[in-house]
Amino acid sequence: FFERGNTNFIQAEAKYRDFLNRFPTSAQAAYAQFQIASSLAERVERPDRDQGTTRKALASYQDLLRLFPTSEYAAQAREKISSVRLNLAEHEFVVGRFYLRFGAPKAAVGRFESILKDYPEYLDKDKVIYHLGLALSANEEPDAAQKAFERLRTEYPQSRYLEEVPKQREVTR
């Protein structure tokens, strides 16, 4: 694990899993579970790539909290969960924006709405709400788009995306 590199992280994950399978009640089991999750987290791809490893890392950190809630690694696992979830949320945004740009606004609406619902800790909600408004507009739902843009104005009055809203509203009319 400490030698770094994708191959080493894969090998480390396998060795830590083997340790946990052989010694599930060991005093070092929490550490091994943390290292499994960390080995996966080190292999997390950028948000525009496949997030299979990211989901596995999230599940492994959650397993640590479920199996060893009082472990000395629990606080670190919570921090890592937050980081991994932000990557997943950004992935959802990238996919939603792709759908919006290439003619699938209904699919984009679903992605943007899922970010707002499933990732309350996501930092760029104004970006998501703006793009949700665009997707709703492209999906020929002008009233829903108007509500999204109004929400953007209300919740994020300093958002840089507000400058773009009037241009979009003219397009939908």
End-to-end separation in angstroms reads 57 Å
Radius of gyration: 20 Å
Q: How much strand content do the residues show?
A: under 5%
Assign an overall shape. Answer: elongated
Q: Which structural category do the helix and sheet elements fall into?
A: mainly alpha
Can you summarize the main beta sheet?
A: none
Can you give the helix content as a percent range? over 70%
Count of DSSP H/I helices:
8
Task: Give the uncertain stretches in residue-range form.
Answer: 169-173
Q: What is the string of helix and strand elements?
A: HHHHHHHH
How many distinct beta strands? Answer: 0
- What is the overall pLDDT average? 92
Looking at this protein, list some descriptive labels.
single chain; 173 residues; mainly alpha; 8 helices; 72% helix; elongated
Concise structural overview:
With 173 residues, the protein is mainly alpha-helical. The protein is built from 8 helices and no strands.
